C-alpha cells in the first residue's frame, strides 16, 4: 500500500512538473491523435487539454506542415531515435503569437522542436513526444545581430555621404568587369565624370553646400542608371559608372541623360540655390588595355578632353 501511494505521489509530482514547465509537451500516438497536452500548450494555443485529447493534430492545426511532420515522426518511430529541428531550419511548428515583451518585434514564437520515441510494454515505439521550446529571444537576438552585421558590411562598401559604392569597392568591380571581358568578350563601357568648377562652389557657399551638390549628383546618377550598372564615388567630386553589356553609343545616351538632368536642375541649399554642370568621359573596353587601370586611364583621358573642350559635355574616348 505504501509503495502504491509513493508511486501515486511521484506520478502527481511528475504531472505537476509537466504542467508548469516552460516547454510545450505533446504526446501523440502514431495516428497523430493527441494524448498529452500540457499547460504551456494550453496557454499559447488557447485550447484546453480536455478539448484536444483524442483529436488528430492536423485537424486542429491545419497549417502544420503535415508531410514534413509525418516524415519526421515516421523516422523517429522506425529508428527509435530522437529528432531535433531548430528555428533556423523551420521557424516554428505551432503558429503561436509571440507574447514576450522583450522580443515584441517578432510576430510569432520561434521554436526548437525535439521529437522523442515512446515505447510500449513490448518495446515497440507506439507514441512520440513533441517538446516545443520557445527560443524567440535567441532567434530575435541572432537576427538583430545578422542585420547589424549586414549593415556594417554595407557601410564598409559604400560612400557615407552619397550612398554610392566607395572607391575601393567600385575599383574592385571595374577589375572584375575587365576580367569578365577578357574571358567572355562581352561589350562593356566605363564612365568617369566630375562636377565642373566645384572648388568655387565650396569657396563661395561652403562645404555643407558642396556636400549637397555631391549628394544631388549621386541621386540623379542612381536614378538614371539600370540595376545592372554600378556607380561609385571615386574622389571628392569625381564619380564612375560601370555599364555592362553597353557599347560607347549606348553609354553616351545614358550619360547625356545624366548630364542634361543635372544641367536643368537646381540644388536648393540652405545658403543659396546652386546650378552646376558635369563633364563626362566614356571608354568602351577593347583588347588594347592590359589591365583595368589602363581602361580607367582611357575613361579619364576622355573626361580630360571633355574639360578641355569647354566642360558640360560628354566625350567618347
From TrEMBL:
Recorded catalytic activity of this chain's protein: 2 GTP = 3',3'-c-di-GMP + 2 diphosphate
Pfam families for this protein: GGDEF (PF00990), PAS_4 (PF08448)
Chain ranges of the GGDEF domain: 186-317
Cofactor section: Mg(2+)
Domain of life: Bacteria
Keywords tagged on the record: Kinase, Transferase
Major enzyme class: transferase
GO terms, molecular function: diguanylate cyclase activity; kinase activity
PANTHER family: DIGUANYLATE CYCLASE DGCM-RELATED, REGULATORY COMPONENTS OF SENSORY TRANSDUCTION SYSTEM
NCBIfam families named among the record's database cross-references: GGDEF (TIGR00254)
Protein name: diguanylate cyclase
Species this protein is from: Marinobacter manganoxydans MnI7-9
Amino acid at each position: 500500500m505504501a509503495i502504491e501511494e509513493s508511486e501515486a505521489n511521484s506520478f502527481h509530482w511528475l504531472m505537476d512538473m509537466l504542467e508548469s514547465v516552460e516547454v510545450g509537451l505533446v504526446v501523440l500516438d502514431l495516428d497523430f491523435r493527441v494524448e498529452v497536452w500540457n499547460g504551456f500548450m494550453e496557454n499559447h494555443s488557447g485550447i484546453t487539454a480536455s478539448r484536444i485529447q483524442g483529436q488528430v493534430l492536423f485537424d486542429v492545426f491545419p497549417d502544420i506542415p503535415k508531410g514534413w511532420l509525418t516524415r519526421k515522426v515516421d523516422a523517429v518511430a522506425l529508428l527509435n531515435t530522437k529528432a531535433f529541428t531548430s528555428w533556423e531550419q523551420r521557424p516554428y511548428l505551432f503558429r503561436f503569437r509571440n507574447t514576450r515583451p522583450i522580443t515584441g518585434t517578432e510576430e510569432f514564437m520561434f521554436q526548437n522542436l525535439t521529437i522523442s520515441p515512446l515505447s510500449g510494454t513490448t518495446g515497440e515505439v507506439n507514441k512520440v513526444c513533441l517538446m516545443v521550446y520557445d527560443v524567440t529571444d535567441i532567434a530575435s537576438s541572432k537576427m538583430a545581430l545578422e542585420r547589424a552585421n549586414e549593415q556594417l558590411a554595407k557601410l564598409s562598401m559604400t560612400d557615407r555621404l552619397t550612398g554610392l559604392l566607395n572607391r575601393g569597392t567600385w575599383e574592385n568591380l571595374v577589375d572584375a568587369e575587365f576580367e569578365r571581358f577578357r574571358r567572355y568578350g562581352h561589350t562593356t563601357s566605363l564612365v568617369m565624370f566630375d562636377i565642373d568648377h566645384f572648388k568655387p562652389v565650396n569657396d563661395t557657399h561652403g562645404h555643407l553646400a558642396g556636400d549637397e551638390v555631391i549628394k544631388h549628383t549621386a541621386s540623379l546618377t542612381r536614378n538614371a542608371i539600370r540595376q545592372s550598372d554600378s556607380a561609385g564615388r571615386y574622389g571628392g567630386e569625381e564619380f564612375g559608372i560601370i555599364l555592362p553589356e553597353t557599347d560607347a553609343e549606348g553609354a553616351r545616351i545614358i550619360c547625356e541623360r545624366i548630364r542634361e538632368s543635372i544641367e536643368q536642375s537646381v540644388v536648393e541649399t540652405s545658403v543659396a540655390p546652386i546650378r552646376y554642370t558635369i563633364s563626362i568621359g566614356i571608354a568602351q573596353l577593347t583588347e588594347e588595355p592590359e589591365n583595368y587601370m589602363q581602361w580607367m586611364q582611357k575613361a579619364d583621358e576622355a573626361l580630360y578632353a571633355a574639360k578641355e573642350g569647354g566642360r558640360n559635355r560628354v566625350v567618347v574616348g
